[in-house]
Design brief:
Elements (H helix, E strand, L loop, with lengths): L2 H14 L5 H13 L3 H6 L6 H15 L4 H5 L1 E4 L2 E4 L11 H19 L7 E5 L5 H9 L4 E6 L2 H13 L5 E5 L15 E6 L14 H4 L15 H13 E10 L5 H10 L5 E5 L5 E7 L3
Parallel strand pairs: 3-4, 3-6, 4-5, 6-7
Antiparallel strand pairs: 1-2, 7-9, 8-9
Helix pairs in contact: 1-2, 2-4, 6-7, 10-11
Amino acid sequence: MNALDKLKDISNQLKKEGIIDYIKEAELIITEILKISKAELYTHEIILSEKNLKLIDEIVCRRSKGEPIQYILGYVTFFGLKIKVGSGVLIPRQETELLVEEAIKELTIIKNNLDPVGKSLSIIDLCTGSGCIALALAKHFPTAQVYGVDFSHKALQYATSNAKENLIENIHFINADISNSLECLSLIGKTYCIISNPPYIKRSDIKSLQREIKDYEPLEALNGGEDGLTFYKVIFKDSPKYLKENGLLILEFGADQASAISELASKANFKNYKIIKDYSEIERIFIGYKTL
């Protein structure tokens, strides 16, 4: 069987199983197994060996049962980095790349105000998970000191591995629980930026999530408590203690949480802030500076 015929078969099977991006995932499965580009898949006559057919069918079987394609393949591409993922660590989402883009814009201004090379720039990523946000920022600002904080030992194992995989050395990971306070940040000292994409799903909404998420991804990385705001309340309350003067707080939040986030920001004296919409025109990112 040639690759394009197999692509059609896989697409149809995944579509029947309710996979939304069935064509994209079918392409990904075949190109990953064959180690070819998408362009080569469509422009070359490729005959699949029995071994490759078996590997492809095994992946399709797992995917049809709901296992995320990122877990099956073992990685996801995020902001140009290859991020290893698997059971026990949240899968980075494409929309979170916008959080990194916005952070880079703001941090570049801060860095330029510090000194030409930004040697004193420091960044803390709370709920770092796979380390994708922290690593993307550490890569972009190689002279900065970046810290990733998470309570999950397994997630931090992935984060540490991802730092090595991407040859990023200006990063440090800290195992700590921030669900009640940011006291662990006293080990680091005051910083120029705190960034986070914390759990923000309401506890009662988790059961209605896609099966790929609720049945496979770590629930503790999704559960934002009764109102979805557990971590945001702590971050807004404590972050001013650990931000330098005019320090940056940047957060990703849920689709219906902009009003609640604005209220928390005002109470925490983040008066000079803005809300950014994501690629789907949904309010998604908070950017605020500590005010005296």
